[in-house]
Specification:
The structure holds three protein chains of three kinds.
Chain A: E1 3-12, E2 15-25, E3 28-33, H1 40-47, E4 55-60, H2 68-76, E5 78-81, H3 93-103, H4 108-121, H5 137-149, E6 155-159, H6 167-180, E7 185-189, H7 193-199, E8 202-207, E9 210-215, H8 217-224, H9 234-247
Parallel strand pairs in A: 3-7, 3-8, 5-6, 6-7
Antiparallel strand pairs in A: 1-2, 1-4, 8-9
Helix pairs in contact in A: 3-4, 3-5, 4-5, 8-9
Chain B: H1 2-8, H2 11-28, H3 35-55, H4 63-66, H5 72-94, H6 99-120, H7 127-142, H8 163-183
Chain C: H1 2-11, H2 15-35, H3 41-68, H4 70-73, H5 77-81, H6 87-119, H7 129-151, H8 157-172, H9 210-230, H10 239-263, E1 267-268, E2 274-275, E3 293-297, E4 299-303, H11 311-325, E5 334-337, E6 340-344, E7 350-354, E8 359-360, E9 365-368, H12 376-392, H13 400-410, H14 420-426, H15 429-444
Parallel strand pairs in C: 4-5, 5-9
Antiparallel strand pairs in C: 1-2, 3-4, 6-7, 8-9
The chains are: A alpha/beta, B mainly alpha, C alpha/beta.
Chain lengths: ~250, ~190, ~450
């Protein structure tokens, strides 16, 4: 298992963002759904070792991120795209991805090829030398994905990765996710249920800091059948049905 | 609306910075300084105030704010003038007078900063007044060590009631205020 | 890997964008001021050290602070926090890139000034210590700005820290009183502050490295302490790295303190430079060898080769006087420039006088100290008069006859018509010379009165 979480909580002041989550994730693509404020981003940030948990147990890639040494080891094999992606406007695409390759302590001999591969995989090969300040929002999102996959991570965490991508790019991105999920654990937090349906083999639905559903997309779809829940697509109806059930 | 605009530009922090500069000048003027120190100290603290005012020109919102209605130029104008007035008042109080010199120097320096904000962006607005400070300090030094660098465009080295210096400082201030009020600081971030 | 990171930071640093501003300010404030001095390495290099930091410090501090706050300003903090490389490492890479560019810019500006000075034929080699101290200041001030920006990533930090650094630099020299002030550790100080860049130092005797060494110790300590501070917070790295940062901080503070303490033991040496006993090398007290530059004006007139350009003015000024005195009993056979001697007299007062006696050797050589602005008229009025007074016994306490002959021979052209001095000056040169040959010893000893004058 690449991710082992038991009764994980995270509190920010008086706000309980994550209120006891238990998960075990191996290779594959795992979708994380939920309304705004459900705790998805906080959970992702703990898995990205950006914030420590308030309580509970977490092991990533077989290590406890509580210690500096193991945490550093985890981060070398981690890829993370946060929800709010910042960038250095004067860097070029290649420089930005290279910067993060170096921060991830990739062996120097591998950096150049890895950067070129990552940039090509997100479809920005012809923009490799463009300054980031000249790129559109969707392209910047793809740059963010490129920096996350440059080190061929064993654990890839993506928070709203398809925001700003056009439909064609979203299709390509889902294919990329499936490809990456062959070996790595990919966790995708998103509001777009069609992304989950197309790319994820397993999906969890969070609400108020807890896991309300954990299963396959088909199982989530089945939860919405015959319930009259809101939604234009079967997966959306399953999503609404689960939330309604949890809140009733 | 004005209060929100001021908060978005970190104007309260700028006011604090201005008051700290004025207090620093007041404290410093209690000491005895030689001629260089006595002349240069007020200018340095005036520059501190000017850079604090200049960086408030930067907008944190970018394009969404530019696509709003007619109030934005007036808000920019009002906040800039108000901050400059606070700086002039605080520095004049710190110097126990010399309103004319403070008004000229601080206004001119602020104008330099605002022009930089309009051209290079709010984040780099401080480079202009800081560079001008170096030139002005040198010009003051050259009054004792000729040849004097004497042009009304370096107004801190001119006598307080010098008309040329006041006109130049005033023009720079007005130009900076007009540019920032009408166009705002240059937005250098990509969207 | 570190080199690659540094290359990336160098390519995207903000300092190159500020180079036109820096170059313009350097030209206006430093280059013009230095080049207004005669081509002497001492005054130009020391002026450069004093004024160039006023140009570079606020620029470098502001740029470094801007860079230090980069992660916060661009919203990238979360992303880099989750990376493997310790924060301190990536901060050091960004700081190093800023420092490298700043030093390149500084040395480029210094090179322009030094090349221009060398092409004007300045004697001796360039004075390197002022340039070294200036260059060593940049890592320290860059670290100051970077630490401020990293620890407080606000839009106000770069400008206020830049202005504050300029303020600290400018007022640091205001606190210097006397030759043992600890404030002399400030990198803008190249010699005793109350003297300023003086044309009389570091030519006959070498430029003392005592104060520059103490300043380097101070600046290195400051750099280490500030960079170490960045490595102390919990998120900077692992325990080992943070321990290293703590050691660096402590070492930096100790070095800074030691340097300040050394500056407090400084004293003005007789050659006009600051000596620090613990750092002083006695070999630096030995004079620098040179071959004097000489010209003829009835007598050989010789100056140190560094002041060669003043020789025509010196000869012009002394020619009328020497034409009168050459060959007379007791007259010097040669005029030679000697070094100045400096003595601290309490507070910021320093006396500057000729080193040694006015006359030395046998046959006698008359030793002169060049005035600050050596024009022919000033030389005639000062040095010329000194030479005459040596022969006639004129000067303070002189008799009327001695004073009249001195006034006549000094050729300063301000004689009252009909006065004894005017009458003596109006004599034919041969008659005047014959009288002096016969009566000079008696005149010098004060035995003559006005009635004895022709």
């Amino acid at each position: 298992m690449n991710v082992e979480i038991a009764e994980l909580t995270r509190r920010f002041g008086r706000t309980q963002a994550v209120a006891g989550v238990t998960l075990e994730l191996g290779p594959g693509v795992f979708g994380l759904l939920g309304p705004n404020g459900a705790g998805k981003t906080s959970l992702l940030r703990m898995m990205a070792t950006v914030v420590p948990p308030s309580s509970g147990r977490i092991r990533l890639l077989g290590r406890d991120p509580g210690g500096y040494g193991p945490r550093r080891q985890i981060r070398r094999r981690l890829g993370y795209v946060p929800q709010n992606l910042g960038f250095y406007p004067r860097f070029t695409v290649v420089e930005f991805v290279e910067y993060f390759a170096l921060l991830k302590e990739m062996p120097a001999a591998r950096v150049s090829r890895a950067v070129a591969t990552a940039v090509e995989r997100v479809g920005l090969g012809d923009k490799a030398t463009a300054k980031l300040r000249t790129l559109s929002g969707g392209m910047l999102r793809r740059v963010g994905i490129a920096q996350a996959i440059v080190n061929e991570p064993d654990l890839l965490l993506l928070d709203e990765p398809t925001a700003g991508l056009d439909p064609e790019q979203r299709v390509a991105f889902r294919a990329l996710l499936r490809d990456l999920g062959q070996q790595a654990t990919v966790v995708v937090s998103t509001h777009l249920v069609e992304d989950v349906g197309a790319a994820c083999g397993r999906v969890a639905l969070m609400d108020q800091g807890r896991i309300a559903f954990d299963g396959t997309p088909d199982e989530l779809t089945a939860r919405g059948e015959g319930t009259g829940a809101a939604g234009d697509a079967p997966l959306e109806r399953g999503y609404s049905a689960v939330l309604a059930q949890v809140r009733s | 609306m004005a209060a929100l605009h001021l908060a978005s530009r970190r104007v309260p922090a700028a006011v604090l910075a201005v008051l700290v500069c004025a207090a620093g000048l007041r404290f410093a003027l209690r000491w005895e300084w030689d001629a260089y120190g006595a002349l240069q100290l007020p200018l340095i603290f005036e520059t501190g105030c000017a850079v604090a005012i200049a960086v408030t020109a930067a907008s944190p919102f970018g394009e969404p704010e530019r696509a709003t209605g007619r109030w934005l130029p007036f808000l920019r104008l009002g906040s800039t003038l108000a901050l400059t007035a606070v700086a002039v008042a605080a520095l004049t109080a710190a110097r126990s007078g010399d309103l004319v010199a403070v008004l000229r120097d601080t206004g001119g320096l602020t104008g330099v900063g605002l022009l930089c904000a309009a051209v290079f962006g709010g984040a780099l607005a401080w480079a202009g007044p800081t560079g001008y400070l170096v030139v002005a300090v040198y010009a003051q030094y050259s009054l004792w060590h000729p040849p004097a660098l004497s042009t009304p465009w370096i107004w801190p080295a001119r006598p307080p009631l010098d008309t040329g210096g006041a006109v130049c400082a005033g023009l720079v201030f007005l130009a900076g205020v007009a540019l920032v009020a009408s166009r705002g600081a240059r937005d250098v971030t990509a969207t | 890997m570190t080199g690659r990171l540094l290359r990336l930071e160098l390519r995207n640093n903000v300092v190159p964008w500020l180079l036109p501003l820096v170059a313009g300010l350097f030209w206006l404030v430093t280059y013009r001021t230095s080049m207004a001095y005669p081509p002497l390495w001492n005054v130009r290099a020391m002026t450069m050290q004093n004024s160039s930091l006023a140009v570079f410090v606020p620029t470098v501090v502001g740029a470094a602070a801007w860079l230090g706050s980069r992660e916060g300003r661009h919203g990238i903090a979360e992303l880099v926090t989750g990376s493997a490389r310790p924060r301190w490492h990536r901060q050091l890479a960004a700081w190093a890139a800023t420092t490298c560019w700043s030093i390149v810019a500084y040395l480029g500006c210094v090179a322009v000034l030094y090349v221009a000075t060398a092409r004007e034929g300045a004697w001796g080699g360039p004075l390197w210590w002022p340039a070294v101290v200036g260059a060593a200041s940049l890592p320290a001030f860059s670290a100051l700005g970077f630490a401020a920006g990293a620890l407080r990533p606000s839009r106000f930090t770069p400008p206020l820290v830049a202005v504050a650094a300029f303020l600290a630099l400018e007022i640091s020299a205001q606190f210097i009183h006397g030759d043992h002030s600890r404030w002399q550790i400030s990198p803008v100080v190249s010699n005793l502050w109350s003297i300023g860049p003086d044309a009389g130092i570091a030519t006959f005797y070498p430029y003392l490295p005592d104060l520059p060494i103490a300043q380097l110790l101070f600046l290195a300590g400051l750099t280490a302490a500030l960079l170490g501070l960045l490595g102390l917070p919990a998120g900077a790295g692992g325990a080992g790295l943070r321990r290293s940062a703590a050691v660096l901080t402590v070492a930096g503070v100790l070095s800074t303190g030691a340097a300040i303490g050394l500056a407090g033991t400084a004293r003005l040496d007789p050659h006009g430079l600051i000596a620090i006993p613990a750092l002083h090398d006695a070999a630096d007290d030995l004079p620098v060898g040179f071959t004097p530059a000489c010209a003829e004006a009835a007598l050989p007139v010789c100056v140190h080769p560094a002041y060669r350009r003043y020789l025509p003015a010196l000869v012009d000024g002394l020619r009328p006087v020497l034409a009168e005195l050459a060959g007379l009993p007791g007259a010097p056979v040669r005029i030679e420039q000697v070094a100045a001697e400096y003595e601290h007299e309490g507070g910021n007062d320093v006396s500057i006088r000729r080193s040694g006696d006015s006359v030395s050797g046998s046959p006698p050589v008359f030793n002169v100290l060049l005035p600050t602005r050596p024009s022919s008229d000033e030389i005639r009025a000062t040095l010329g008069r000194d030479i005459v007074q040596h022969l006639t016994g004129g000067g303070r306490g002189a008799g009327a006859a001695q004073q009249a002959v001195t006034d006549a021979l000094a050729h300063t052209g301000d004689l009252t018509p009909g006065s004894p001095a005017a009458r003596f000056a109006a004599l034919p040169a041969a008659e005047r010379r014959a009288w002096l040959t016969a009566h000079l010893p008696a005149l010098r000893s004060g035995q003559l009165t006005l009635a004895d004058l022709p």
